[in-house]
Design brief:
The chain is α+β, with helices and mostly antiparallel strands. It is built from 13 helices and eight strands.
Length: about 300
């Protein structure tokens, strides 16, 4: 009986808490909490999860009463211990999740496992996205409001990347660098659809952008991939760095996207490997002469059908 009650109690605590944590960045009021100072945010989330724990404890107490009087008495005696232990476990869980959010969960995993202690070659796919007209927006909005716009913009990109099973490698100024293991990125055209998914999310929140900033942001994107060297760099602050021609080419493609219809450009190498998602079409373009490359690069524009 005690084992059954323990299992029920654990599930009632763990399932809602895990679901809340995994979905927190998609829930409007939870995203609003995220903008609070970190300590306030952590305490607020801990309070919410503690409430779930208390409700779970009460539900388990009801279950104990149904099983036996003895089980109920034992459970009541341990109630304080259960709540204290659950509260401590919640704080630890939230701390781990927040460290993962800061570093990136993939980066956190790779640092813990030592995957990139020694540099290694990998075939990866990259999607670079940046904010169109960022210089003019910064001048018009001023630095604080422009920073807030960037934060909103990157949240929408992050949601689209997660839906496309991508990893947010880093933010550089007004640019986001997303990456996939090659096989995962080309599967079902996951990576190819991300720029358009991000645009759809921004369009869904167009009223928010107009109300707060007076403008709806636009983006352009470049998609390319190939073999890079991946490894840990830094000591005081450690991160995973990717070095190689594919990233350099992707950066130059992003510059070229300024003049491309629809603002999304993809290399032929990626197109030959990945299916074009439903609702999109690839329009062949003249090969691009890129600085540092001997041969022209075959590319195409991705546009909605």
């Amino acid at each position: 009986a005690s084992l059954l009650i323990g299992i029920v109690n654990g599930l009632l605590v763990a399932v809602p808490a895990t679901l809340l944590e995994l979905r927190a960045r998609r829930i409007g009021w939870m995203r609003a909490l995220r903008r609070l100072p970190f300590l306030v945010y952590l305490l607020a989330k801990t309070a919410i999860l503690t409430l779930l724990i208390v409700l779970a404890v009460l539900a388990a107490r009801v279950a104990a009463a149904l099983v036996s009087t003895t089980a109920q008495e034992n459970f009541t005696e341990r109630l304080g211990i259960v709540i204290a232990f659950s509260f401590g476990a919640t704080l630890i869980m939230l701390t781990v999740f927040e460290i993962g959010a800061l570093l990136g969960f993939t980066t956190l995993r790779d640092v813990f496992t030592g995957r990139y202690v020694r540099p290694r070659e990998e075939r990866r796919l990259f999607v670079l996205l940046d904010l169109t007209g960022s210089t003019g927006l910064a001048e018009r909005l001023g630095a604080p409001r422009f920073h807030a716009l960037l934060a909103d913009f990157f949240r929408d990109i992050s949601d689209a990347a997660l839906d496309g099973r991508g990893h947010i490698h880093k933010y550089v100024g007004d640019e986001a660098i997303l990456t996939w293991e090659w096989s995962r990125g080309i599967a079902d055209g996951n990576a190819l659809g991300v720029p358009f998914a991000a645009r759809a999310r921004i369009a869904d929140r167009a009223d928010h952008y107009r109300r707060i900033y007076g403008v709806v942001p636009e983006l352009r994107a470049a998609i390319h991939g190939g073999v890079v060297v991946a490894g840990e760099i830094g000591d005081v602050r450690r991160e995973i760095a990717y070095v190689g021609d594919p990233l350099n080419v992707a950066a130059r493609l992003l510059d070229a996207a300024r003049t491309v219809e629809g603002g999304v450009i993809v290399s032929r190498e990626v197109l030959d490997a990945a299916p074009v998602p439903a609702g999109l079409a690839a329009i062949a373009m003249p090969a691009l002469e890129l600085r540092g490359r001997a041969a022209p690069l075959a590319v195409a524009a991705l546009v909605p059908r």
